Structure to design on (1500 residues):
C-alpha cells in the first residue's frame, strides 16, 4: 500500500466544518495552558529588568532583596552557573554570542539583570523591587533613521549595521526601466508591531532527577528543547518540552532567557518554578515585527507588462540581530524579467525583532501592492486586470519551476466577481465628509522546505484511536484537522480520537507551528500513519480469511471483501484482538522536486474615511485564498478572520512608540497599544476559498493558510484608502492624526 | 537489516551489572510514584466497607456524612451512574457479572458500600465513619475445608464450588502405579498469603474534558485502561492510565473498584481525586495467593524412573472466582508418562484471590518437591541425582516439543557443586537442641504466550536517545535493562538515555509486568527499534558517501567504512542534522513455533531448627537459575533475593488468619502479618546464573527471572527442615508453634 498516495478525490469528514474537538474544554476553561500548570511546592519567579534604553550595570546589591519575605533564590550574573553566553544566530559553529543570560551591558529597556524565585508571585515582584542597582546610562538610538546617521550612538560594538546589504539581481535593471513606458517610485514606511499573544510568555520548570521538564507556552517545542539543551549543555533526551496548548504568532518560536533562568533557578532551589512575564515585559522583551523603510520603483509597458522592479529596503532589528526580509514577493509574485533588491538591517536600542506571522511579507505587500495600484492608475488599467496580466505561473527564484498549483488568477477574478469589484470601483470619489473606496491587493507566502515529521496512530480494538504527533495546536484547530484525517481514513468517530501532541518526550518529531506548514507537514504524516494501520489490518484480514489483501477493503471501521468474507468490524479481527492495539507509523514524503509550492491570495477591502475626524472604517472585506484543499472551513475561515484582523491593526492602529527623549516605550500595555477589537472588524467579512485541486504538493493537497491570511490585508485597505481619498498613505499605521494630516496636505504623507 | 536477529555473541553494556539509571531518584525520594501525584484542587477519597464477613445492606443513611466538614461528594449504590456491574471473568461476551460497584450483598469483610470525596484525607475518613448502615448479617464460611462441607453457608447463589473440577490426564495412571516399585502419597496444605506491596493500591483520577487520566500504582496500564473503559463505557482512547513507576506482585494487574469509583467521583465533583487504600484495606480487599489443599501420589521404579503422578487439588478463591492452578509443574518438570490432575476451587467469605508472583507454582512446588524428596528417600537415591535422572528435556504438554533451552540439569549439578551439597547432606541428623539440615527443590515457570509489543527509539542528533515503551518498571530495574540494550546497540551512554514508559497515551502497547516476561517481550522490541535506527543511519550514510550500506558499520555512535569514508559521528550525517531526530520502531518477533520456552531453577537451603523453641533459621541458600541471558547481574540478583525472601515468608511466617467465630481477618497489618525482615534472610545467599546460551527464544536470549526466583524456595526449606528433623512439614507456614507440635507428635503435621 502506498503510504503517501495522491490526495483524496472524495471525502466524508475531511473538508467538513466540524467543530473543534477541544472546543468545549477551551471555552469552559478546563484546558490547562502552560500558564495554568500548577505543581506542588512550586515557586514563582520575577525579573529585574534594566529600566533604561542603554546602560551599563555598575553594581548590583542583592542583600536587601535576599531578606525579603518568601525569597528562596536570586540568580544574577554573579552566579557562575548563570554566566551563559547568549546567541542570536542559532547554536552551530557559526553562532555569535552577542550577550549573556544577565549581561551587564543592557542594550534596551527590559534587558534581564536578575531573577528572583519566591513562595508567591507578589513576593517575587516585591523582592525584585528591593534589588539595588547602580547604572551608568549610555547614549541611545530609537529609530531606524537615526541608527543610520553617521555618529549615531552604537548599539553593538561594531556599530549599528546589523547585517550588511544583501543584493539580489535578475536581468538588467537599467534595461528594464529603459523599456518601461510608465514608472512609479515611492518610499514606504511600516511601523514596529508587537505580537500581543493572548497568553503571556512563560513556562513552568521542573526537575525529575536529571530530566528537565518545561511546560512552555510556545510554538515549537523541539526547537526550544534544542536551544535549552545547548545552552545548559545537556543531552537533548534530558530536556523535555511540553507545548501541548501552544500559542504565538512567531514570538514563541525561539529559546528565551526565561526558559533557561527558570531551569537554573528550579535546579538551585530543587523546586518547580513558574516563571511568566507580565504583559509589559512581553511588549518590551520577546519580539516584534521590525519597522521597515522601503523604496520601491517599478516600470511597465503600456499594455501592462512589467519590465522592472527595484527595491531598496532597511529593517530595524532592535538591539540584536533579526532576520525579516521583505524582498520575496517582489521576486516571485509577478512575472518581471529585471529585478534588483538591496536590503540591510540596523540596530536600535529596543527589544529585538522576532518572526511575526509572515515575517517580511505584510511589509512587502504594503509597498508592492500600493506600487502595483499606482502603476495601474498611471497605465489607466484596472488594478485587478493589471495584476491578472502579470501573475507569475512559474517560480522565478527556483529555476522557473512550475508551481504544484497556483490559484492566484482565480483569487483575482473570482474574488472580484464575488466582491462586486467592478461596480464598487466605478463609483466616483465624492467630496462628502465621509467618502468610500475599494481596494485590492494580492499576496503569497514563501514556502519553507520542511523537515521530516513522524506520526504514530494507535488503533484500539474498540474502534477508537490515539493520534500522537509532535506538532502543537497554537489555537488554529490543528488538532481537530488532524483528527479529521484519522476519522476519514479509519472511520473512527471524532469523539473517539484522542490527540497527544507537542511533547518532546512522548511524541515524535515535528517542526514547529510556523511557516503555515503545520497542516501540510503533519497532515500527510497522519494520513500515512493511518494507511499503515489500514495496511496492517488488511494484511491480517487477508491471512484470517485466506484471501488476497488487494481484494479486501477497510471502510468505516469494517473489513469487506469478496463473497465468503463476512463483513467484519476491524476490532473483531483475531490479529486486532490479540494485539489490543494496532500501531501505525507515518512519515511525510517530500513534495516533488521539480515543482515549487506557494499559497496565494487576494484581498478586497471597502473603507469609509471620515474626512473630518480622520476615522477609517472598514465596511467589508473579501479574502480569496488558494491554500490548496480546505480541510475544515470553520478553522480555515478563523485563520482568515484572524489574519484580516491583524491586517487591520497593521493598516490602522498598531505601532510601538518609543520616546526619543528617554528611549522608553510609551505604550507597553493593552490600553495604549491598539489592537483591533470586535468593533473594528467589519461585519461583512467573506472567505472565498479557491481550491485548484493540488494533487502534487502532498497526499492531502494542502498548502497552508495561516500566514497568507494576513499578507495583503493592510495593503488592500491602503489601496481602498487611496481610492476613497485620492491620497496615498505610505506610512503605516494610518492613524486618525495621520489621515487629518494627509488630507490637510492634500498629498501623500511622509 | 534483520530487525530480530540472533542474540548478541559479544556485548559491552548488556550483561554488565550497571547501577539503575533511576537509582538516585528513587533513593532520594524525587521519584513521583502514583501515591506522590498531587494536583491542584485535588480531593481525597475514602471508602466505607462492610465490617462483616457476610451481610446484606438493608439501609444506608448518608445524611449525617453529607454534612461533615469538607465533604464534596458521596458515591453509593443509590447513584445511578455507580450501578455498574462487576465482572470476574474479563469483559468479553462470556463475562459474568457477579457483583456490582457497590453491591448491597456483601460477601466478605471489606466489600465497598460507599466512597466519600472530601477536601482532606482525614475529613474523608471522618465522613466515612458518619455514614449509618443497617446490616442483616448472614452465615459465613472461612476455610476451604468448611466451604466443601454439605450444607455450608453459600457464598454465591450457586453454592461454594467456584469452578467445576478440571481434569488433565496423560497415559494410564493405573498402569503407572502398577509399574511403580515405590509409591508415596501425602496431603499438603498451603496458607493464604497476602502480596504486601510497599506502595498501597490507589490512584489519582483527573478529567480533562472527556479524557480520563489515572495515575495508578499498577503493573499493567493497558489492561487497566481496557477494564476502566469497558466499565465506564468509554472509548479506549479516552482512558489514559499512567503507571510509570509501577508496583505489585500480581495484585496490581487487575481493574479495581477504586479506579472506577475515583473516576466517577472526580467526574461528579469536577475535581481531581486521590484515592488510595489503607494498609488494612489492601490486606482485606485487593487480592491474595489462595490457600490450597493438594493430595499428591507419585510412583517410581527402583532405578528412579518416574511412572505416575496423581494430583488432586482444591483452591480457596475467596468470595469471587480466581484462577490459580497448581498442576503445571507436575505435568512438565519431570518426565512421567502417566499423569492425572484434578483441580477445583471453592468460595469462602473473604477477599478474592488474585495473581501472586508465579500463581500456583510455589504451592505446587511445596507438594511436588517434597514428594520428590520423599520418593528419593524411599528409593534410597540422592534427591539431586533422582531429579537429574527425571528432568524432562521436551515439553510434555506441548506435543513434546524441545525447549529453546533447558538448563535444569546444570542448575542441579552445578548448584549442588557450588553449594557443597554432598558434604552438607552427609552429616548425620543429630539429637541436639539445634539441628541442621539441607534441602533441595527445583522449579520452573510456565511461559505465557505474549502479545505484541511495539517500542519507539528516538535517536537525537546530539547522540542522546529517548526510549518509549509501554512496559512499566515495577521496581525490578526493567528500565535500566532496556536502556542497556539501547546503549549496546546505539553506543549511547546510559546517562544520555531517557526512558518514557507505561503510559497508555504516550507509549506504545506492551503487555503488563507479569509472567516474568517484561524483559523477554520488550527487550527484543527495544533491540529491534535500535536496529531500525541503525538501518536508517546506515542507509543515510551510504547515500551521503555513495557507498553500499553493507560496507558501513555503526559502532559507538560512529559510522565507519571502507577507505574514503571518513569516520563520522552519526550526528554529523546530513540526514540526521536535517531530521533532528531519527525514529526507530521495533516490534517483537514471536518465538519459534516448533520450540517451547521455560525458565528453570534449583534452590538449595540449609536450616537450623531449634527443637526447644521451634525456631527455624535459614543458614544459607543458593539459587541456580536458567533464565537465559543475564542482562544485568545486579537487577537479576535482586530478583532472586526478593524471590527467596518471599519464599522464606511462604515457608515460615506468612498466612492470613481468619477468625472462625466472626469471619474477620485477625492480622490485617504489618505487625501481625509477618513478612520476612532483613534479619530473617540468611547472610549467605548465593546467586548462580546458568546461561545455556539460548539463541532461539528471541533476539536477546532472555527467558525471565521474576517468578522462578520464588518457585522452589519454600519447598527447599521444607526439605531442609525434613533433613534436619526427620519430620515432614506438609502445612505452610512452618511456624514455631507448628514445629513444636510436629516434633512433639514425632510425625508429620496435619
Amino acid at each position: 500500500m502506498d503510504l503517501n498516495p495522491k490526495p483524496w478525490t472524495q471525502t466524508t469528514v475531511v473538508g467538513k466544518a466540524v467543530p473543534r474537538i477541544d472546543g468545549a474544554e477551551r471555552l469552559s476553561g478546563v484546558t490547562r495552558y502552560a500558564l495554568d500548570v500548577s505543581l506542588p511546592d512550586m515557586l514563582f519567579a520575577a525579573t529585574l529588568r534594566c529600566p533604561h534604553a542603554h546602560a551599563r550595570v555598575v553594581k548590583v546589591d542583592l542583600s536587601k532583596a535576599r531578606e525579603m519575605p518568601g525569597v528562596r533564590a536570586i540568580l544574577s550574573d554573579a552566579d557562575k552557573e548563570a554566566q551563559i553566553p547568549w546567541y542570536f544566530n542559532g547554536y552551530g559553529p557559526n553562532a555569535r554570542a552577542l550577550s549573556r543570560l544577565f549581561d551587564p551591558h543592557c542594550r534596551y529597556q527590559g534587558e534581564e539583570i536578575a531573577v528572583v524565585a519566591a513562595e508567591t508571585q507578589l513576593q517575587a515582584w516585591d523582592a525584585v523591587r528591593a534589588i539595588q542597582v547602580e547604572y551608568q546610562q549610555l547614549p541611545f538610538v530609537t529609530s531606524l533613521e537615526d541608527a543610520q546617521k553617521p555618529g549615531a550612538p552604537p548599539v553593538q560594538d561594531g556599530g549599528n549595521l546589523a547585517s550588511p546589504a544583501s543584493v539580489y539581481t535578475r536581468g538588467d535593471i537599467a534595461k528594464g526601466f529603459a523599456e518601461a513606458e510608465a514608472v512609479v517610485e515611492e518610499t514606504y514606511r511600516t511601523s514596529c508591531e508587537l505580537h500581543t499573544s493572548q497568553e503571556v510568555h512563560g513556562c513552568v520548570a521542573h526537575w525529575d532527577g536529571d530530566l528537565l521538564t518545561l511546560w512552555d507556552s510556545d510554538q515549537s517545542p523541539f526547537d526550544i528543547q534544542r536551544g535549552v539543551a545547548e545552552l545548559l549543555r545537556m543531552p537533548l533526551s534530558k530536556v523535555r518540552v511540553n507545548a501541548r496548548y501552544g500559542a504565538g504568532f512567531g514570538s514563541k518560536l525561539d529559546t528565551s532567557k526565561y526558559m533557561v533562568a527558570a531551569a537554573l533557578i528550579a535546579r538551585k532551589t530543587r523546586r518547580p518554578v513558574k516563571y511568566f512575564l507580565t504583559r509589559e515585559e512581553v511588549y518590551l522583551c520577546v519580539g516584534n515585527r521590525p519597522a521597515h523603510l522601503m523604496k520601491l520603483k517599478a516600470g511597465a509597458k503600456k499594455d501592462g507588462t512589467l519590465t522592472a522592479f527595484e527595491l531598496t529596503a532597511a529593517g530595524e532589528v532592535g538591539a540584536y540581530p533579526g532576520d525579516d526580509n521583505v524582498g520575496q514577493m517582489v521576486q516571485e509574485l509577478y512575472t518581471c524579467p529585471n529585478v534588483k533588491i538591496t536590503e540591510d538591517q540596523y540596530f536600535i536600542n529596543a527589544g529585538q525583532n522576532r518572526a511575526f506571522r509572515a515575517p517580511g511579507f505584510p511589509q512587502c505587500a504594503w509597498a508592492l501592492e500600493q506600487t502595483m495600484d499606482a502603476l495601474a492608475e498611471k497605465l489607466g488599467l484596472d488594478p485587478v486586470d493589471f495584476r491578472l496580466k502579470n501573475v507569475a505561473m512559474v517560480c522565478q527564484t527556483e529555476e522557473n519551476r512550475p508551481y504544484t498549483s497556483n490559484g492566484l488568477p482565480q483569487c483575482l477574478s473570482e474574488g472580484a466577481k464575488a466582491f462586486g469589484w467592478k461596480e464598487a470601483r466605478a463609483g466616483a470619489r465624492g467630496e462628502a465628509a465621509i467618502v468610500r473606496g475599494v481596494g485590492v491587493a494580492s499576496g503569497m507566502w514563501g514556502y519553507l522546505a520542511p523537515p521530516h515529521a513522524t506520526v504514530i496512530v494507535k488503533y484500539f480494538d474498540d474502534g477508537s484511536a490515539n493520534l500522537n504527533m509532535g506538532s502543537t495546536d497554537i489555537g488554529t484547530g490543528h488538532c481537530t484537522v488532524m483528527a479529521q484525517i484519522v476519522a476519514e481514513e479509519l472511520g473512527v468517530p471524532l469523539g473517539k480520537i484522542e490527540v497527544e501532541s507537542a511533547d518532546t518526550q512522548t511524541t515524535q518529531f515535528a517542526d514547529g507551528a510556523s511557516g503555515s506548514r503545520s497542516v501540510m507537514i503533519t497532515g500527510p504524516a497522519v494520513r500515512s500513519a493511518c494507511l499503515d494501520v489500514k495496511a496492517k489490518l488488511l494484511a491480517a484480514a487477508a491471512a484470517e480469511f485466506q484471501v488476497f489483501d488487494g481484494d479486501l477493503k477497510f471502510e468505516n471501521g469494517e473489513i469487506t471483501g469478496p463473497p465468503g468474507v463476512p463483513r467484519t468490524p476491524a476490532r473483531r479481527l483475531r490479529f486486532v484482538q490479540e494485539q489490543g492495539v494496532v500501531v501505525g507509523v507515518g512519515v511525510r514524503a517530500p513534495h516533488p522536486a521539480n515543482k515549487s509550492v506557494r499559497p496565494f491570495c487576494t484581498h478586497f477591502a471597502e473603507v469609509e474615511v471620515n474626512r473630518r475626524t480622520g476615522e477609517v472604517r472598514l465596511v467589508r472585506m473579501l479574502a480569496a485564498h488558494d491554500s490548496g484543499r480546505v480541510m475544515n472551513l470553520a478553522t480555515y475561515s478563523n485563520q482568515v478572520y484572524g489574519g484580516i484582523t491583524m491586517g487591520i491593526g497593521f493598516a490602522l492602529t498598531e505601532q510601538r512608540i518609543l520616546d526619543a527623549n528617554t528611549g522608553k516605550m510609551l505604550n507597553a500595555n493593552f490600553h495604549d497599544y491598539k489592537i483591533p477589537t470586535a468593533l473594528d472588524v467589519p461585519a461583512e467579512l467573506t472567505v472565498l476559498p479557491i481550491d485548484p485541486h493540488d494533487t502534487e504538493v502532498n497526499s492531502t493537497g494542502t498548502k497552508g493558510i495561516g500566514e497568507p491570511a494576513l499578507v495583503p490585508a493592510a495593503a488592500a485597505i491602503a489601496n481602498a484608502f487611496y481610492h476613497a481619498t485620492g491620497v496615498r498613505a505610505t506610512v503605516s499605521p494610518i492613524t486618525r492624526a495621520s489621515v487629518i494630516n494627509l488630507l490637510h496636505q492634500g498629498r501623500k504623507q511622509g
